[in-house]
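Support request, priority: normal
Reporter: lab tech (M.K.)
Component: structure prediction queue

Hi team, I submitted a job for Cytochrome B from Pseudomonas putida yesterday, and the status page still shows it as pending. I've pasted the exact input below so you can check whether something in the sequence is tripping the parser. The sequence length should be 184 residues. Please let me know if I need to resubmit or if it's stuck on your end.
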Amino acid sequence: MQLKDNGLRFSPITIALHWVVAFSLLAIFGLQLMIGQASDDAVRMALGRVQNLVGLLLFLVSIYRFWARITAYHPLPVGTPNPIEVIISRSVAVSMALAMVLLPIAVWASRCAGGEVVELPGGGWLPSLLPVNATLKHVVDVLFNIGASAFLAGLALHIFGAVKNHFLLKNNTLKRMLGKHVEL
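Reply from support: The job had stalled in the queue. We restarted it manually and it finished. Here are the results:
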């Protein structure tokens, strides 16, 4: 079994973790919507703990993904893409992988600086290593907003590229990200 990406294809680990991250992000966004709609404080707290757990798992997976991304060869693109598009897509992918490490840290730092305990389901919690400080919280929140905006722009480019490859160029890029063997 291929454990690392190479110049011809993604490893099954990379493909699986790509979709784990995608569905984890959807879960975090969905949980945030549910927290906003919940009328009961107990429900909001329970959903918040689940959201914290998904964020923690996303952070741990993202550390590995970022390391794997910068230490392995990235497969050649399918078809004959424009070299500028390849540079942009690879830059966006590395930036998104880094953001998936840094943004959860920023959320944790913001909550710590705001005096909140980051609770997990089952009574667990993440340690607070930062002092309670309103100025620090403000700085971290501003940095988070900048990073989240950049991440969402990168995500939009990523989705645009996937849609373009699948529907406009009609190549096998999506099939490759679903684990199928494709010819370059």
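Residues 134-168 form the longest helix (35 residues). The beta strands are 118-119, 125-126. Let us know if anything else looks off. Ticket resolved.
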